[in-house]
Structure formats: C-alpha cells, structure tokens
Protein: Patatin
Amino acid sequence: MSQSEYGLVLSGGGAKGAFEMGVWKALRECNYPLGAVIGTSVGALNAAMIAQNNYDIAMEFWSNITISHVLNLNKTMTNNYVEHWSKESFEIFRTGFLHVLFSDGLDISPLRENLTRLVSEDAIRNSPIRFGLVTVDITSLKPRQLMIEDIPHGQLIDYLLASAALPIFQKQEIDGKTYLDGCFFDNVPIGFMAEQNFNNIISVEFPALGLRKSVRAKNIEITTVSNSQLLGGTLDFNSKTIEQSIQLGYLDGMRTFGALVGKHYYLDLNRNNAILEKFKAKLGTPLSDQSKQAKLLALLDIHEVPDENDIPAALENLLKKTSFRNRPLVLSLLEITGKSLGVPRLENYSIDFFFQALLKQLNILLGENLSLLENPKILKEFFLPAANNFKRFSFISFYLLFISIRGDLSSEKMRPFLCKFTPDISLSMITLLYLHETLKK
Structure:
C-alpha cells in the first residue's frame, strides 16, 4: 500500500447510498488514488462496484433503480390480497400483511439478480483497490469484518446480501449460518479501515439506522463527507430523489475536497471569473447614480459622506448579523443574494455563471410580481410601524418597493420602510445595486 493512497469508508442507509455514488464521481474528478474501499450494508454494495472500478455500470444501476430492482412485493402479497385480503376487512388485511412482512420477510431476490449481473467477483479479486465489508453472524452472535481474501470464492454476492440483511428482509443464510445487516455492529467502519494500515481515510456518512464503533487508531487523518441537506428515506427509490442524492453527493464531495467553495452554494473560482474581479473592484465604492447611492447609505445607516473604508466596514458589520459571519465578504454577499432570490442550489456554478443566475432569477421574479406595486394595501402595510409581521412577504416584494421609492427622500423618511429589512435582505439589495453598477456599460 502506498502512503499516498486513501481508504474509502461507505456507510449504510438503503436508498441514501445514491449519495455515495456522487462522492465517488467527485473522487474521480479530483484524482484521489484509492487503495481500499470498505462498506456496510448498501455501502458494501457500492464498495463492490467501486472496487471493480466500473463507473458506468454503477451509475447506470443507480440512475435506473426502482423499488422493484430491490424488493419483490408482487408475489405472496399480491396473491394474498387478490385471493383473501381484498375480500375481508381492513384489519384482516393489515394483520395478514404484517404476518408476511415479519414472518417470511421481504423478498430481495431482485437485488440478488441485479448484483449477480452487475458485480464481477473476479474483477474485484484482481482489483488494485482492496474490498471489504461488515456483517453480523447472528447464529454465533459475532460480527464479521471481511476483506475480499476472507470471503470464499463464489460467495461474494452472498456476503454482500448478508451485509445488507435488514431484519425485515428474508433471512440471509451462508453455510448454515444466518446473517444480519452490518449496521448492527458498525455502520461506519473507519476502525476496520484503519486496521488495513491506511493513515488517510475518507468517510462518507449520513443519518441512518445503525451503530457506530469508536475509532481508537491514532495517527490517522479522516476526511468526512456528509450530506448538506436531507436525503430521502431508506426505501425511497423515487427516481428524482435518487438523482438529487447523487448530485448532492457529488457537490458535497467536491466542496469537501476543495474543488468548490461556498457555504450554501457550490462555486468554482478557477474558471470564468472576469465579472467577479470587476465586482470586487466596484464593491465599497460610491455608486454613480445619486438616487441609488442615497438608498445604499440609508441601508447601511451611514449619515455622512463616506470615506473609502466606511462602506466596506459597514458591510462587514452587517454580515456579522447573518449565518455567514466570519466568512469571506464577497462570496457571502453572492450566496446570501442567491438564497434571497431562490437561485437553484444543486449546481456546480462557475462564479461568473452564478452572477448570471442571480440576474436571471431576478428577472423571472420581477416579471411574476410587478403587479404588487399596483396594490395600495401592500404599499400601505410596508410603511406601517415596524411591529407588523413581514415574514409573509417575499424578498421580491421588498425589492420592488425598494427600487420604486424616491432616492431624494431623507434617511428619516426611508427609515419606516428600511427598518423592516433583515440583514440578509439589506445585503441582497446592496449586492444587486453593485452588480448592476458592475455590468453598466
């Protein structure tokens, strides 16, 4: 094993395992050399596909997966429903369903068929990426942590299913022993990977059923990739959910590995950043339009002619009142504005394209909401005392009223309206003012 190689650990979680495929895509793009991959439950299934290093097959499987590729819900249950349960009361139906579920277990023969088709045991045994899995032998009540060389030839598929054998599934038996999902011993087998003498470990983790063993190994460096938003349920094999999970894994992976930056969005600073440089140069300088300049100073609560440091300092102070405090000012302004406008999150944005996405979303919202200015009740409510609840108003409502008020009004006259702005709204307004200034010809 080369010291430059990484050990990849994949946790269990059913359909959430699609997230791990996205992380693998990020690892490939960032050229991380893998020396071993160990998984529990669905993590073991993904680990097998990664070890055989056939990316296209793995992505084809996850991109097309449905519940019928994993479970056979149609034979016993459908027959019983047609022949018996449909003719009885709901209580009898419920009792019969639960009896089949918990006595016989769910039939996962479709999963076995798909693994047999997709996974090449010979390719995994000959792979430079070592493979391992975790399961539990409930016959002897002992956990089994197995590397590929510990698994008898011809039984890899059996042990993959043993690693993913949840109690609701049909019993998984190998050589007279019954096995249970490895999550009941260690759902995130970092310690097992450390035993394979890897000092650099990448662990892919998300909330899921299972236990987690403490890691006692010393002198190891662990990079954790976690989901930044909720994934679907354990058996949620909806195609849109799977697609989103793969994309989220890819983006969270790319950000964890330093290829992308951002707190909420995923921004690439290494390509197409001409607008960013112009925006940085403009930010903090006086706006050319005096009306907009007056509104800017009112938003920042600056009452005198500012010097060159006043506007940047006021922006930094306002940023401290948001969830983006202690983060870079320029990128934070862009991300806050993106959130205010509802710019789609799960995309890999070059920074200049993100500027375009801001303007595109702003134009869409303006086109959909211009009629707000024709509603006198809305206008009146915005200028009522600050005690009113304004959470029900969208950002675009504030923006339309902000750009429509006269710039020659004094700060005192603007205050009844501006005091209703949250720090995020104020910073978004300012960002859009400077963006328009940056793009002015």
Summary: Residues 351-369 form the longest helix (19 residues). The chain has a mean pLDDT of 87.
